[in-house]
Design a protein that fits this description.
12 helices, alpha/beta, binds magnesium ion, globular, DHBP synthase, 337 residues, binds threonylcarbamoyladenylate
Length: 337
C-alpha cells in the first residue's frame, strides 16, 4: 500500500468528514478527483446527465466517448448490466476490486452520457480504500475517466491532478501515489456466446485473465469508436517520445539528438550512465515497477524541459504489454506536436 494511503480503519475514520463532503459535492452535480490503484479518476454522479456534461467539458473530451462507471461491488452489477456472461462473472468475482473494466450489455440506468450512445456499459470496482469508502457512502455509480485533460498523461498523484485540472475540480481526495500506475484492462464480455476481447491492455495481464478463464482471449485495438483511450495519439507529454527497442541504438539516438542541439533524455528500466549531455531517467527493473513509474517519468521529461525523450520499453509480457501500448500512443501523440 503506498505511503499516505488510507489503508487502515483508523485512517478512514479520520477522513470520514472528507468523504462526506465528497458525497455532498457529487450529489449536487460536482466533480471530485478520486484515487484508484491504477490512476486518479475524475468522478461525477453517473446518473446525472448535467454533471456528466460538465465532466466532459472539464476534461476537454469530445462528447460521444463512453466513460467507465465505478461501483462499490459486484452486487451493483444487475443495476447497470442487463446480462452478465459466465466469463464476466468469473472475472468479476476473482479480480474485483482490481484493475479490470468489464464491458457488458447495459440497462436503462446507463444513460447515453455514460455510454456514448453504445448499447454497452464499462464497469469496474477500484481497489483503493478511499475510493471504496466513497462509493459505499455515495450509494450509486461514479463515472470516472482519468483525471487529466484529454490526450495528456494520466495522473498518478493528487498533485498531478491539481497541476492539470486546477480549480476546475471541486475536491481532490488524496490517496497517495497509485500502486499500479497504468489504467485498468478493458475486457469486452458483451457479445453473447463469443469469447471475451481485451479492448485495452492494462494493469490486469492477459496471462492472468486466460488463467482465470481457462481459455484464450482475443486482443484488439478495434479503434476510436469502441474505446477512445485507444486513439493512436494519447497519453502524450510535451516532449517528443521516441521508442527504441535496443539500448545501444537508443543511446546513439539520444546522442544524435543532443548533437542536433536538442535537450534529450533517455528512459530505461534500470539505472545506467547516460551518454554525455543526455538526461538519464529510470523507470524500474520489473514490468510492474516500470508501469508504476511510467507516467511520472513522462511528466518528469516535461519538468526537465526536454525536447525529446528516447525510451527503451519493457518486454511485451505481463503488464509490459500495457506499458508498451501507452508508450506507442505517447509517441504517436507527440509526433503530431
Ligand atoms: O483505470 C482506469 O480504467 C481509470 C481509472 C480512473 O478507473 N479510468 C480510465 O478512464 O482510464 P478513461 O475514461 O480515461 O478511459 C476509459 C476507457 C475509454 O477508452 C473508453 O472508451 C472505454 O474505457 N470504455 C468505457 N465504456 C466503454 C464501452 N461501453 N465500450 C467500450 N469501451 C468503453
Ligand atoms: Mg484516460
Amino acid at each position: 500500500m503506498p505511503e499516505g494511503d488510507a489503508s487502515t480503519r483508523a485512517d478512514l475514520d479520520a477522513r470520514a468528514g472528507e468523504i462526506e463532503s465528497a458525497v455532498r459535492i457529487l450529489r449536487a452535480g460536482g466533480l471530485v478527483a478520486i484515487p484508484t490503484e491504477t490512476v486518479y479518476g475524475l468522478a461525477a454522479d453517473a446518473s446525472n446527465p448535467a454533471a456528466l456534461r460538465r465532466l466532459y467539458e472539464v476534461k476537454g473530451r469530445p462528447l460521444g466517448h463512453p466513460v467507465i462507471v465505478h461501483i462499490a461491488g459486484i452486487e451493483a452489477l444487475p443495476h447497470w448490466a442487463a446480462r452478465v456472461s459466465e466469463d464476466a462473472r468469473r472475472l468479476a468475482e476473482t479480480c474485483w476490486p482490481g484493475p479490470l473494466t468489464l464491458v457488458l450489455p447495459r440497462t436503462s440506468a446507463a444513460v447515453d452520457e455514460v455510454t456514448g450512445g453504445l448499447d454497452t456499459v464499462g464497469l469496474r470496482v477500484p481497489n483503493h480504500p478511499l475510493a471504496l469508502a466513497l462509493l459505499r457512502a455515495f450509494e450509486g455509480g461514479l463515472a470516472a475517466p482519468s483525471a487529466n485533460r484529454f490526450g495528456r498523461v494520466s495522473p498518478t498523484t493528487a498533485e498531478d491532478v491539481r497541476a492539470d485540472l486546477g480549480s476546475d475540480v471541486d475536491l481532490v481526495l488524496d490517496g497517495g501515489p497509485c500502486g499500479v500506475g497504468v489504467e485498468s484492462t478493458i475486457v469486452d464480455c458483451s457479445e453473447e456466446g463469443a469469447p471475451p476481447v481485451i479492448l485495452r491492455p492494462g494493469g490486469l495481464t492477459a496471462e492472468r485473465i486466460e488463467a482465470i478463464l481457462g481459455h484464450p482471449v482475443r486482443q484488439t485495438s478495434e479503434g476510436p469508436s469502441r474505446a477512445p483511450g485507444m486513439l493512436p495519439a494519447h497519453y502524450a507529454p510535451h516532449a517528443r517520445v521516441l521508442v527504441v527497442e535496443d539500448l545501444e541504438a537508443a543511446r546513439a539516438e539520444a546522442t544524435a539528438r543532443v548533437a542536433a542541439g536538442e535537450r534529450a533524455g533517455l528512459l530505461t528500466a534500470a539505472a545506467m550512465t547516460a551518454p554525455s549531455g543526455v538526461m538519464a531517467l529510470v523507470a524500474g527493473a520489473t514490468a510492474e515497477a516500470y508501469a508504476t513509474t511510467l507516467y511520472d517519468r513522462l511528466r518528469e521529461a516535461d519538468r526537465l524541459g526536454l525536447d525529446v525523450l528516447v525510451v527503451v520499453p519493457p518486454a511485451a509480457v505481463g503488464v509490459g504489454v500495457a506499458v508498451r501500448d501507452r508508450l506507442a500512443r505517447a509517441a504517436a501523440g507527440s509526433a503530431r506536436g
